[in-house]
Amino acid sequence: MFTQESVSNLLGRRQWLLRAGMGFGGIALADLMSNGISRGVQPSDSEQGTSGVATQGVLNPTHHTPTAKRVIYLFMAGGPSQLETFDYKPLLNEQQGEPLPDSVRQGQRLTGMSGNQATLPLAGSIFKFAQHGQCGAWVSELLPHTAKYVDDMAIIRSMTSEAINHDPAITFLQTGNQISGRPSIGAWIQYGLGSDNENLPSFVVLITKGKVDQPLYSRLWGAGFLPARYQGVQFRSGKEPVLYLTNPPGIDSASRRRMLDRLQELHELQADATGDPELSARIAQYEMAFRMQSSVPEVTDLSTETEATLERYGASVRTPGTFAANCLLARRLAERGVKFIQLYHQGWDHHGGVPGGMRTQCGETDQPTAALLQDLKDRGMLDDTLVIWGGEFGRTNYSQGKLTATDYGRDHHPRCFSMWMAGGGIRGGMTYGETCPYGYNVIDKPVHVRDFHATLLHTLGIDHERFTAKFQGLDARLTGVDPAHVIREILS
Fold first, then answer.
1. Could you tell me which residues are beta bridge partners of residue 474?
2. Which residue, 94, 368, 468, 472, has most beta carbons within 10 Å?
3. Could you give the residue range(s) of every CATH 3.40.720.10 domain in the chain?
């Protein structure tokens, strides 16, 4: 148990360290600077060049001129089937019900959910595909609204991952590592680039309300080993979009302001005594919460939108917490300088009932996604807003469970899946990569999760190899230690 004497002794020793060597943090920083290790977040003049832009984060300026100022990431949690959306494979329909050839599978591992089946019957999609736009991209009939915007997209059909189960796969896409505890993409971006609006968080998370599927954990938008202020802030539907933001009964804004002023004075006294940098971060978070009391209600009030805009997103936009409402809210947040907006829409884990499940999911997301793209275009924002659509992996080309003429299931398949990127310096009207005629393996231009991350950062002016943070004696980065490459062919 601490006594006043023990605390005084502790503070005395800490003060000695602060005066003698700037504290442990100062000693570590001095060591980093002397060895040049911190260049990943503070590059030298020769490394910076003259093409970067100023930011409010640790990267100042950026490594090169960004093409995107912000990101809206539409994450389809559960693993949407590429074979029912963007990867047209007529051969599967021709060989419907035939066993998956060993020459195609090549001994690759399967999950326990279908690995013990007596046979793995090929299952073609029951949905029709057609070519769209000037680029002639193949898109399923399930996505008629999204198909109108293929000339703005780079559709990547050759995404690949090692993660075969949901939690490590989602964690990999969101943090760059299959093991939890690393900073999320949004945390890295806020750390590097800071914020463009002092009254709103730089990283906001929106989750479709009422969807039941694979669980989503707050660590997916967490800060990991970075300071906690870089974690995403979840906005919820209802009267209290951000939990614990409103004043309790009997407390008005003036009273809260006085309380924060006195609390800041106490924190400053403690900071003078201990030199703890987390106290400054805590003060900043309290002040942000105070400012958000007025900014959050304003940005989440969709009643100010025109009827034409609401109709564009579809009828469900009027229901808070729907994917449509969240897409419209994402545009409003982007307008106000929020740098990274993460939308999660669950329900894509179709081990059975693929036709019915895909109709439901695409019905909920297709029109709002297209509306978001058009909304951004109308406001001149798509050119500098990177929009991303995709899940954590794809689905198998064979049926999990019983295959019938009208119904089938698909298991997890990390070997190949589809994503698309639009705006923010992305070359529209192109399809990148190719899978085999069976839709089981990538045969041209594979894009690993790390390559996706490297490309995302590149659009924001960040060189993924030079953007690091010290963790457990290593220079950690979003793309990890294995090779990662920017997909330059999809950049405009």
1. 471
2. 368
3. 69-241+303-490
